[in-house]
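Quick one:
INPUT:
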């Protein structure tokens, strides 16, 4: 029997949705090769399989499980204190192919990472390396610093002190008077971000990376503002929430259209400057300025920026906002004459069903796209329409639980093979296209559960369809075991010929 055929069987069974735990556990055997690793990383798993992988002696298995985005992350908590630092680092880094909906790690795992005294028994990474992976993974919710600002463990209060501007005034005061000297020192240093004179004293040369960060986030003195204008380094000022009103008025008249675009929707923009921008020669500036009267808080500003700064084919990660606008504001956006505000409303998962139904029929295509990609109540037919017309959103749409699994048979003749593959998997399809010229379409057709056992046996012998047939949920469990017996133990099992 061809080794390639055996590898296809292993990979197919690894992703067979009907494979029971005892079948999947066999794939944790090192003889299963990459199939076991792909399974641990790439699909939801029964509890028994998770338990077996968590305590598996082979580190590669545990590393793969640490990057699984389908398993409830609370089940992965033991990996945060795994003997291997690389396993811990993989969990901190997050899934290899991060979905658009970024899944935060539970607070318990975050606490374990942030209070760790070492990076694992193997010594290959440090606890600081692991925390560094965590910060770049987007798996920490914006509310976490506020949640741990009063924690008993000083390491967590120290972390909160470094996230100063996300804390409440009362939390800042408490950290400035913290019993731990390291926390007090960090809090005092962070508090200088809000002291314009202290910022002026510590500001490095304008144009350096750290200076750009400070100019974009810290309170600024008039002298620092003037230095920025003199050096034509004003873009950070346009984003800085602490930028003085007189500087904002100057930015609204800046010759660089990108600067005017950046300030046009700010909630603290003065009425005179806003009125001028609504008459700006640039259409994009005028459009943003028309939105400005509807934006009164920084949470609303961020919600609008998430739309105006990105196009219809944007696939940026979808993360939890630091603060959320009110439901009434989103409802007003949904009824707005401004398409951009309706797009903003379409992105809010809490929008009521009645408004969802209205936006699903919106004349603006981008409203419908945003709704399909963001709202759990978006109609299945809309998700399918966007899948067909906007290929860049396909990977995300396929992860949504409401994506239609049937009603796709009319797409079987579509010129795009990715669309045909979707149709080929529809269980209501009378005849799956097993001879389609595209490999992916044939695999999808071979996995169609309507196929008879006799047909599956034939497909299992064909290198073009063997993986799809092994993935087919109609494949009997005893047959799965028989195929694994052959691949893992060398036990002879029919079929014995491969059609090439």
């Amino acid at each position: 029997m061809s080794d390639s055929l055996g590898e296809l069987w292993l990979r197919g069974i690894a992703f067979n949705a009907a494979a029971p735990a005892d079948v999947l556990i066999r794939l944790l055997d090192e003889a299963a090769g990459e199939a076991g690793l792909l399974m641990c990383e790439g699909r939801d798993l029964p509890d028994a399989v998770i338990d077996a992988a968590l305590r598996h002696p082979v580190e590669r298995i545990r590393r793969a499980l640490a990057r699984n985005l389908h398993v409830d992350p609370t089940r992965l908590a033991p990996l945060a204190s795994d003997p291997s630092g690389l396993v811990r680092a993989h969990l901190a880094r997050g899934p290899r192919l991060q979905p658009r909906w970024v899944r935060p790690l539970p607070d318990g795992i975050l606490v374990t990472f942030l209070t760790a005294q070492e990076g694992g028994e193997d010594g290959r990474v440090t606890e600081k390396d692991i925390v560094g992976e965590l910060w770049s993974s987007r798996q920490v919710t914006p509310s976490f610093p506020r949640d741990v600002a009063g924690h008993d463990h000083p390491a967590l209060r120290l972390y909160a002190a470094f996230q100063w501007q996300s804390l409440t005034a009362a939390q800042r005061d408490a950290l400035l008077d913290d019993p731990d000297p390291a926390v007090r020192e960090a809090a005092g240093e962070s508090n200088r971000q809000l002291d314009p004179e202290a910022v002026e004293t510590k500001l490095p040369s304008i144009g350096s990376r750290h200076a750009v960060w400070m100019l974009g986030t810290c309170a600024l003195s008039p002298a620092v503002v003037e230095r920025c204008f003199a050096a034509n380094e004003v873009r950070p000022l346009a984003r800085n929430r602490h930028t003085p009103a007189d500087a904002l008025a100057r930015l609204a008249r800046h010759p660089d259209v990108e600067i005017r675009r950046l300030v046009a929707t700010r909630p603290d923009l003065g009425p005179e400057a806003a009125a001028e921008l609504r008459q700006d020669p640039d259409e994009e500036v005028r459009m943003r300025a028309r939105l400005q009267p509807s934006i009164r808080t920084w949470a609303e500003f961020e919600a609008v920026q998430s739309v105006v700064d990105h196009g219809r084919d944007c696939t940026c990660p979808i993360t939890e906002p630091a603060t959320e606008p009110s439901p009434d504001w989103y409802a007003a956006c949904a009824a707005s004459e401004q398409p951009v505000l309706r797009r903003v409303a379409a992105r809010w998962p809490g929008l009521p069903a009645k408004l969802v139904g209205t936006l699903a029929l919106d004349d603006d295509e981008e409203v419908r796209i945003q709704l399909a990609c963001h709202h759990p109540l978006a109609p299945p037919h809309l998700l399918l329409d966007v899948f067909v017309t906007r290929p860049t959103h396909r990977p995300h749409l396929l992860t949504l639980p409401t994506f239609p699994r049937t009603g796709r048979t009319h797409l079987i003749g579509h010129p795009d093979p990715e669309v045909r593959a979707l149709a080929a998997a529809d269980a209501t399809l009378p005849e799956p296209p097993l001879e389609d010229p595209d490999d992916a379409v044939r695999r999808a057709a071979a996995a169609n559960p309507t196929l008879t056992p006799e047909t599956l046996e034939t497909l299992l012998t064909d290198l073009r369809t063997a993986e799809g047939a092994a993935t087919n949920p109609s494949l009997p469990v005893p047959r799965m075991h028989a195929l694994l017996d052959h691949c893992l133990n060398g036990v002879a099992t029919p079929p014995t010929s491969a059609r090439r």
